[in-house]
Design goal:
The complex is a heterotrimer of chains A (about 90), B (about 120) and C (about 220). Chain A has about 90 residues and is mainly β. Chain A is built from 2 helices and 5 strands. Chain A has helices spanning about 40, 60-65, and strands spanning about 5, 25-35, 50-60, 75-80, 85. Chain A is globular, with a radius of gyration of 14 Å. By secondary structure, chain B is mainly α. Chain B has a domain at about 40-115: Cyclin A, domain 1 (Orthogonal Bundle). In chain B, about 50% of the residues lie in helices and about 0% in strands. The longest helix of chain B has 15 residues, at about 40-55. Chain C contains 10 helices and 4 strands. The chains are: A mainly beta (about 90), B mainly alpha (about 120), C alpha/beta (about 220). Chains B and C meet through helix 1, helix 4 and helix 5 of B and helix 1, helix 2 and helix 7 of C. Strand 4 (about 75-80) of chain A pairs parallel with strand 3 (about 165-170) of chain C.
């Protein structure tokens, strides 16, 4: 059973690992990857809490709209739980 | 218009979408250059220092990337890959208090006096 | 005595056939002075030893696409190993004796219907503890920008024109995983042993910008 998620659209300054081109896009969780220390804290030398990380699969049509080379090609990215909204 | 914030904060812009310069996915760009180089000894040493400092818990690759991003797009365009890494490793070491700017500056002056090439400047 | 890992040749090319970057004989730069200074300060403070730096360089120099090629060839010849590789890439590499450190490796399989391509749009993440350091092009603005939006056009620049029935799956290496493409085994290789198969596996075929050599 696939699980659909949307990438949050927030854009704080600083070190984050959610690519801008995926923000607001809807994909399906391809697999959970476990929990990893939050890079948004590690980057500043802070003690980091662990956050769940997921591989999320998007269609090129969802990511690029009419600019997509092929609508049914796919794009997978790793995204932390705090960047995802479950649908 | 396709402008991005220069470094940590957008410079010279009264508004921004918050996208940062290093976040390149989907931007317009030319053909992929396919020439390749092997790395020089000094570059391999920069890489080794990064890995060793990370293994020993002084900072992580996230700290390296944070500084590389904050250095901005001009640094990406004008400095080599390991020059940027050196700057970022150094900044993390300074921030973590591993050595001071005074120690670094003094040492770099000593090194300049040793010789004019990388080989001559080694403390044999 | 500094340990020079390069075996300098008079033609200016390394054993791999690529030109060296400027090194010991060029004018000393600010950033080179900073490297020497940082290294000496770390040594003086007892944080690292010269032997550790040399060993770290030797360890990275020993890593190359040949390691990945051996993994691919094993997967082509041993279905149970291939299952383990797809389930946990790092453990399968360790099983073959490769020191991949803390690598979290995800292996993605090319088939007749699927072609995988790896990129890191945010920096240049790469499975360096298996394959060694990434090629220069992998770190360029052009590759990082375009691989996610026009992968087929990028692949054509690399000489790979995919048939229409093949789906392209691009993997943006955005966090803690690193990626290896398991290329499809070329036709006409039925009788070949692991070593001969490994010789067909190119670096680019494990990034997805190429295919294995034909026998």
């Amino acid at each position: 059973m696939s699980e659909r998620v949307r990438v949050r659209t927030m854009a704080p300054p600083g070190h984050v690992r959610a690519p801008y081109y995926l923000r607001g896009k809807v994909g399906e969780i391809e697999r959970p990857l476990g929990a990893f220390k939050n890079p948004e804290q590690l980057a500043y030398g802070l003690d980091a809490e662990k956050k769940a990380l997921f591989r999320v699969r998007f269609t090129m049509a969802e990511v690029w709209g009419e600019r997509a080379e092929r609508p049914d090609d796919t794009l997978d990215a790793e995204l932390y739980e705090h960047w995802l909204e479950r649908l | 218009m396709d402008r991005v914030s220069a470094a940590f904060y957008p410079v010279g812009m009264s508004d921004t979408d918050g996208r940062r310069w290093h976040d390149m996915g989907g931007r317009d760009a030319g053909p992929v250059p396919q020439d390749e180089h092997d790395f020089a000894l000094w570059e391999k040493r920069v890489d080794a220092l990064m890995m060793l400092c990370s293994d020993k818990g002084f900072f992580t690759v996230d700290g390296l990337r944070r500084v590389l991003e904050d250095m901005g797009e001009e640094a990406f365009e004008t400095m080599t890959y390991y020059e940027r890494w050196m700057a970022a490793v150094n900044q993390n070491l300074i921030e973590q208090g591993v050595y001071s700017l005074e120690e670094l500056g003094t040492k770099m002056e000593e090194i300049a006096a040793r010789g004019d090439s990388y080989g001559e400047a080694q403390d044999v | 005595m500094p340990h020079d890992h390069h075996d300098h040749h008079h033609d200016g090319l390394s054993a791999s056939g690529h030109p060296f970057r400027s090194d010991n004989d060029e004018a000393l730069t600010y950033w080179q002075r900073m490297e020497i200074a940082a290294r000496e300060l770390l040594i003086e403070k007892g944080i690292v030893t010269p032997a550790e730096v040399a060993a770290q360089i030797d360890a990275m120099d020993a890593r190359s696409p040949a390691n990945g090629a051996a993994v691919v060839a094993r997967a082509w010849t041993d279905p149970a190993f291939k299952d383990r590789l797809l389930a946990n890439g790092s453990d399968a590499c360790r099983e073959m004796g490769f020191d991949v450190g803390a690598l979290h490796l995800v292996v993605v399989e090319n088939t007749e219907a699927v072609h995988n391509l790896i990129v890191c749009t945010l920096c240049s993440c790469y499975p360096r503890t298996l394959l060694g350091l990434p090629p220069d092009w992998y770190k360029t603005r052009a590759y990082r920008s375009r691989a996610v939006i026009e992968p087929r056009k990028v692949l054509r620049e690399f000489g790979l024109d995919l048939p229409d029935h093949v789906t392209v799956r691009v993997h943006d290496s955005t966090a803690d995983m690193r990626y290896l493409v398991l290329p499809a085994r070329p036709a006409g290789t039925d009788g070949m042993d692991e070593a001969a198969l490994a010789a067909l596996v190119t670096r680019d075929s494990m990034i997805g910008t190429g295919l294995p050599r034909q026998p």
